[in-house]
Specification:
By secondary structure, the chain is mostly helical. The protein has a domain of about 100 residues. Helix content is about 55%, strand content about 0%. The C terminus is likely disordered. Keywords: Heme, Iron, Metal-binding.
């Protein structure tokens, strides 16, 4: 019956009395599901705290559900949990920051809501790991940046270089050579008494962190244009303040990921963008279509030969009415689909796309808000299962169309899942979903509030544990059945009628 109890613990219609009964069941998993419910009342939190389980209390406190005054005095890690839960007064921050365990101090130093004076104190901690976390904290006082950029450990300097508030001049210094004086510790030895013979890898990490920072002056990036560290290069390749000579170099980078970022950068000159549209890697060619400044003729060329992602194209979003109409009549179906994806579209173009013979265009227009039931019906008539997914995923899809799609044997499991959880789905459609082969379709149907009470009761009392839990989550579950199950659980009695065979 645990599956039923877990489902009840998730049920949004659970009353305070039933909540207390589930707590009294003492089942650990049930308790954690209850603790994870949205909008727990003060009384419910108190009921869970009264269980006295350390891990459960920690979860509640760290979730911000327990005011500081209500955190049990003897709770281990009381100060840290309150700090991480955002319920600690200033004095408690200092208590946690003074913990003898460096792991605790690290967690405090890393916390972005920490008071600046607490972060400043931890920035001078005896443990370099604590100092590193403080150095990366956005609340680090500005006056400490120069001091920490000279820290003996490259780990601390790397954290400074990654701090969102690091000043440009300091980033330039770290980018050049890792900073002065030369570090005497690196990631491999910063907590050891004995230093490594060579800290070059650590210095490299400091420089890479500075190179990826959006505030570092671009001039210093010249030494990294051909760097093999692709993640760093892609980070600065998206910048719109790069010199043209840098853009040219990055367009020839051996990594396609870097070239793709450049291809989508609006500062790329048109001749270079046209060259990138012929790149040997398809991801680079597709990225050209995502460039907000791509010429429309080049966008059409790319769309003619490449399968583009479903995201709206920025250049189409900025197109004028005349440009839109020209694109909407393109012989290339994918170009028309890009227009159909546009956030705002004139009504006559919507009608044009509803009548389009290409299923790809139809799927895009079918997903748009504001279509009438008649337009959706026309799309289903013309394109059938090809547009089922787009239609079923619409919040306003009419119940009759949902039933029509559920009854079609060609409907796939993903579409059936959408239908089974759609708020407009009717009981008779849900019964079709319960007969589907896919377990996820049946699970969504069992949890749907439109499912009739007798069906819910049969599912809760039936042999399928997945459906029993889903039905127990259903807010339409009869109250008397909920009371019987929770009452027996609180008494430690396996409920008759919900016991699984073989258990």
């Amino acid at each position: 019956m645990r599956d039923v109890l877990l489902g009840l613990a998730e049920n949004p219609a659970l009353t305070a009395g039933l909540f207390a009964r589930l707590v009294a069941s003492g089942d650990e998993d049930v308790l954690y599901v209850l603790a994870g419910r949205e909008r727990l009342t003060t009384s419910q939190v108190g009921t869970l705290l009264a269980v006295g389980d350390t891990s459960l209390t920690r979860y509640l406190v760290r979730s911000g559900l327990v005011p500081w005054a209500d955190v049990p005095e003897g709770h281990p890690g009381r100060a840290l949990d309150a700090v991480l839960g955002g319920v600690a007064p200033p004095a408690v921050w200092w208590e946690a920051a003074g913990d003898p365990d460096p792991g605790v101090r690290q967690e405090v130093a890393y916390e972005p809501d920490a008071p600046a004076d607490v972060v400043a104190a931890l920035a001078r901690d005896v443990d370099p790991g604590v100092v590193a976390d403080a150095a990366g904290n956005p609340c680090l006082p500005p006056e400490l940046f120069p001091e920490l950029a000279r820290h003996p450990s490259t780990v601390v300097r790397e954290a400074v270089a990654a701090n969102a508030n690091a000043p440009a001049a300091l980033l330039s210094a770290l980018l050049a050579d890792g900073g002065h004086p030369a570090p005497t510790r690196c990631g491999a030895c910063h907590r050891r008494d004995e230093a490594c013979p060579d800290h070059t890898p650590g210095v490299r990490r400091v420089r890479l962190a500075a190179a990826a920072h959006p505030a570092v002056p671009p001039g210093g990036l010249a030494a990294f244009l051909d760097a093999p560290e692709v993640g760093t290069v892609t980070a600065f390749a998206a910048r719109t303040d790069l010199p043209t000579c840098f853009v040219d170099r990055l367009a020839e980078h051996p990594a396609a990921d870097v070239r793709a970022v450049i291809a989508s950068n609006p500062v790329v000159p048109e001749p270079l963008l046209r060259a990138l549209a012929a790149d040997p890697d398809p991801e680079v060619r597709r990225a050209v279509a995502e460039n907000p400044a791509v010429p429309l003729d080049l966008l059409v060329t790319v769309a003619t030969h490449e399968r583009l992602p479903r995201e709206p194209a920025p250049r189409v979003e900025s197109a004028t009415r005349d440009e839109l109409r020209a694109l909407a009549t393109s012989p290339v179906a994918q170009v028309r689909a890009l227009v159909a994806d546009r956030a705002e579209l004139p009504g006559d173009l919507v009608e044009l796309f509803v009548a389009d013979r290409d299923s790809g265009v139809a799927r895009r227009i079918a997903a748009r808000p504001g279509l009438t039931p008649e337009q959706l019906d026309a799309l289903l008539e013309r394109h059938g299962p090809a547009v089922f997914g787009a239609v079923a995923g619409r919040p306003g899809c009419p119940a009759a169309l949902l039933h029509r799609m559920a009854a079609d044997p060609a409907t796939g499991r993903r579409v059936r899942r959408e239908i089974a959880r759609h708020p407009a789905t009717r009981p008779e459609t849900l019964l079709l979903c319960l007969a589907a082969e896919d377990v996820e379709v049946r699970r969504h149907a069992a949890a749907h509030p439109a499912l009739p009470a007798p069906v819910l009761r049969s599912l809760v009392e039936g042999p399928d544990e997945t459906l029993a839990r889903a039905a127990a989550q259903n807010p339409a579950l009869p109250r008397n059945l909920m009371e019987r199950i929770t009452g027996q659980a609180a008494a430690g009695v396996p409920p008759s009628g919900v016991t699984r065979s073989g258990r």
